[in-house]
Structures are given as C-alpha cells and as structure tokens.
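Chapter summary example.
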Amino acid sequence: MSTIHVSDQAARWYKEELNLNEGDSIRFFARYSSGGGLHPGFSLGIAVEKPRHPADKTEVSGIQFFMEDHDYWYLKGHQLHVDIVDEGQDIEYRYTEV
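The structure predicted for these 98 residues follows.
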C-alpha cells in the first residue's frame, strides 16, 4: 500500500505551476527547515527529477510522485496526503498515522 496520496486537483496544480508533462516526476524529500512539518527542524521539499531508488511512488494524471529510500524516514509510520487549498491557489501537505 502506498503511503503517498496525491489528489487529481493537486497533480493538475503541479503540472500547471511547474510546467510538467506526462511522464515527468516529482520527488518529495526531507529538508532542513526552521519551521516544522512532521518532524521538528525539517519540512517537505519537492524537486522535479527522475527516481533513482524510490522507497514509495504513485502516479496521478500522468505524473509520478515519489520519495527516495534515503528520505523515507521522514514518512515512517505516516501517510502523506497532498491536496489543494485556498480555492486552488496552494498545496497542502497532511500527514496521517498508519
């Protein structure tokens, strides 16, 4: 079972905002941050790049969303839900325990 869930609306938002085409990939990764997401001192980053050693991946609207093995600790015990907020103006990252 995948731990990465991206809504169709969120996938379309990424395609428009990042000028993506079908077959492109978005990598989610843990990055240092003064704010906090799931873990204090870290937040979720994104990059347009192809997977090398994906720990988990899902495809929505022709775009592959994934997280590499070395970053997967960030989601341990959680699922990532990516959706649209603010009337389609922004992305929301939500985490649920599994």
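To summarize the output: The helical segments are 8-17.
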